[in-house]
Protein: Phosphomannomutase/phosphoglucomutase
Amino acid sequence: MAADLSTIVKAYDVRGVVPDQWDEPLAELLGAAFARITDADALVVGHDMRPSSPGLSRAFARGAAAGGVHVTEIGLCSTDQLYYASGALDLPGAMFTASHNPAQYNGIKMCRAGAAPVGQDTGLAEIRALAEEWSETGAPQPAATPGTITRRDTLEDYAAYLRGLVDLTAIRPLKVVVDAGNGMGGHTVPTVFAGLPLDLVPMYFELDGTFPNHEANPLDPANIVDLQRRVREEGADLGIAFDGDADRCFVVDERGNPVSPSAITALVASRELAKRGGTGTVIHNLITSWSVPEVVRECGGTPVRTRVGHSFIKAEMARTGAIFGGEHSAHYYFADFWNADTGMLAALHVLAALGGQDGPLSGLVAQYDRYAGSGEINSTVADQAARLAAVRAAYEGQEGLTLDELDGLTVSCDDWWFNVRPSNTEPLLRLNAEARDEATMAKLRDEVLAIIRG
Structure:
């Protein structure tokens, strides 16, 4: 009977519980299908520190090699290190990770040569269909000459490439606490930061895919409490937290206060624009702060607003020739990095900006953090469409308001905006609100939540 991959093949990746939902034999079929759909002669494979990752990635490599494809295994790596390998080697790639999901999960993020994303509309649906077919009919006929599987260490090259994109030569010494959450930041940070004038205080650098200390998702405030406390105890200049596969970074200032990803987006955008003489396009999703397009314009750039999600950001990066893109979720995308996201490069920009002046981080980011934001608030609802329609009805036709439906519903006026959008995977509506002051934002937030929650 054919395997049903509908529960594990998502919009942008493969993700599910091992071995209940998928296992090494299925990974082998997915490797064969990935090689077939990308029509590759060679590809690169990497994996995170989860207990199931080495076996799954090796099975995937076997499946691809059986079809005549030469596979380069780069072993333990962060997701952006896999993107580096895909870009630098100009090969399709597969990264075995479930990011910040619990230990029993694993997944695959796939890309074409040059780190171009593979999603439902760009090959993932076909990969799923082939794997399902072969699970019923048997593995595809092996090639007359099977491909090879070789090992290659790309960590030093990845680190050198990133350091070559940010001038850190003149920064003052900084004390930085880094919480790797037992994820891949513990593998990459020591090499990337090597030789920089940093007093590094490591937290949870031991690679452990069971996440014994806290979930490796720094967007959840509960998961940065340890980092905030340590920054204050150490008298550090800043703290940086990475998620499980270390493609996202989250920053706290010298007081231990979180710095919004929108402020980091604006800061990095200003630096990327300055590198290019004040010209260039910057992508931001529709729930980043008003600060982002304002700063981009002030620096001479052109802001472009897009839907939430890396596939939309990367598509707009390619379409517009953008130099940089940022999301509220602490994903940061760089033209200099094949339009792929890398939290590590964003972290280097923060270190360069902070170390290039004498003031504290809180003072530096204040100019990029101009409004009061609610953060993302999730509400479980019985009927997403009905509750969204109720919100629309409450604001439709009011003078001075603008409504748009680029992604969910956005309502805006001169003093505030909010966005409500449905989750694709859970019965949730997600609210983000922002206003010119805290009192206005709180009133707006509570008003919209009352409608959502009926």
Summary: Residues 21 and 200 are 40 Å apart (CA to CA). The mean pLDDT is 96. The domain at 372-452 is CATH 3.30.310.50 (TATA-Binding Protein). The longest helix spans residues 24-38.
